[in-house]
Amino acid sequence: MTTVAAPVKTAGRAYIIELGLTMGLYMLAVTARPWLIDHAANPSLVLAAKLSPVFPIWLTFLVIWRYYRRIDEFEKLKFLQTIGIAFGVGSCLIVTYSFLEDAGLPQLALSWAWPTLAVSWALTGAIMSAVQHR
Amino acid sequence: MKNDLPALRAARSMTQADLADRLNVSRQTVNAIETGRYDPSLPLAFAIAKLFKSRIEEIFEP
What we know:
Chain A is mainly alpha-helical. Chain A is built from 5 helices and no strands. Chain A has helices spanning about 10-40, 45-50, 55-70, 75-100, 115-130. In chain A, α1 packs antiparallel against α3. Chain B is mostly helical. In chain B, α2 packs across α3 (about 25-35). The longest helix of chain B has 10 residues, at about 40-50. At the A-B interface, α4 of A face α3 and α4 of B.
């Protein structure tokens, strides 16, 4: 009797591959977006072109969810601790910057929120991993 | 929580990776349990006890 799904051992590798693919798709969508918007034949296609990066973003969420489902209970605990701290720090950074905009810093698009959270997540993961392996 | 997992594992010439495979968890999880950094859930503790043909309280002590 165990509490985990079968592919625990391959979860990390599968995650890296799937995340790499979705990130590649995201970069492709962001890069091709201006051209697609310029060459869209009608308003519906313009809207589809404008929203094209959204599809890989939702795929990324799916990849992360699949990884969570595959890992064991201890890995799940570490995962949730990391994401909790990272998104807390990331949210504080975003709110802080929104007030700094009033103080004269350049205005950034809302789309910067996700990369901010992603970088915060990566840094928190690296710090927590370093602390655990000390 | 203290435990006798390293001794039980050594008595059966099992590595942490072997035990992890048998329990379907990662080697890091076995290491965290053995070093007391993580207390396993009840289902995982039962799985460990079953594997070593022992009772949970014979392996783990508070």
